Please model this.
Amino acid sequence: MLIFLICIGVLLLAYKFYSPFVERQAGIDPNAKTPQARFEDGVDYVPVHPAKAFLIQFLNIAGVGPIFGPILGALYGPIALVWIVLGNILGGAVHDYFSGVMSIKEDGKSLPEIAGHYFNIYFKAAMLIFTAMLLFFVGVVFIMSPAGLLSNLDYFKDTIFANNTFWVLVILAYYFFATLLPIDKIITKLYPFFGALMIVMTTSIAVALLIHAPQLPEFGDVFAYFNHSHYNNDLLEPNPDGLPVWPLLFVTITCGAISGFHSTQAPIMARCLTNEKYVRPVYYGAMVAEGIVACVWATAGIAAFPGGYVELKAILAQGGPGMVVNQVATTYLGVIGGIMAVIAVAVFPITSGDTAFRSLRLTIIDAFKIPQSMTNRLLVAVPVLIIAYFMTKIDFTLIWRYFAFSNMLLSTSVLWLATKYLFDRGAFHWIVSLPAIIGTCVTLSYILTAGIGLGFPQEMSQPAGIVVGVVCLIALIIAHNKRKVTPAA
Model:
């Protein structure tokens, strides 16, 4: 458990010492009027207490992402924990923070509008497509996964509640109201409670793991997969199937490390914060909290099963990450754990799905300058939800693959957007530009290799991604040096 405890400690230290440095680059002004104060409309621009804003942002970005992804990532062994921590500190936290900064500085606008301001109409159009595609896929995924779970519960066997379509329609009906109603009618009332529940569940599982978990691999075996060596216990051998860590681990674990979906949620709270000084605890803080959740569940995937990799893989093949959550929670926490497990895999994704569709509505309204009347909100929301219903008839794994790619692509785009923001300010841009280069390498390597992409062999795609990253770095150094000698700098 030493690796796990070190990871949690490093995440907390990063918030304490690194996040203030990041904040100093952003140009935060506690005396500036926020979008909420300037545009309060009783619908989206509504004042929210910073503690509530943190819990809402945490739940918006979390859902089951930092649970399911790390459980799947546990198949790679303890290296999953290393990626979560490094990805969170160097990529995800600054990505989420600058998403919030740029939105609150730009009247709470959505990403495509911000992209148009800092680059041009073409980049704005690309960001609009990527953002809308990701939000739509997230919404559809978070209809299908909870509906599938609820319809298969033993409690509902041989009843109408065992019908998957029934739950799809129920979830869509909830999304309809949550998308249209003012934010203080549902989201600010329910989400702080569910966010707190996520924290309680995570803490309980972490304590249980520290007390009850079986013997874990030795510390020195963390990087064993690099030379294809094995643990002394063959059942604990990491990744014996030879899954390529680059780039698959980076795609498997996104929430908790870095996720483009988080940036789409930034405008929701950016329109509700009453002071710019709350951006760091709300956005950076929520991402660190999600990283801790991801570490807990990655550790659970590695540690909670005496059969190690073999047992974990068998459970995933039988019932997916949801079954792992259920087994871990019920084994360590009993009846209460079972209730928490159902909430985790059913309610939490719904709370991300509804804000995904809400963000999609805001993105479309911002892009086409549509007035915020109830009629216009209906004209945007209803067609989107109808199309989403028919999309639930498509194979889930296909939807998930497109979601994974668009998620990775958007996070990289946002990091480049943040690079431009800091370039224009004359600030230390390397905190976002270096992660942007790494994201570019991973994104290119993935789309060259993946079945939904070009399907090239790994021997070709991996070096291609690295070469493009080196080219980006050289171009960035040249641009940096030019900026240093200009009078404006």
Notes: The radius of gyration is 22 Å.
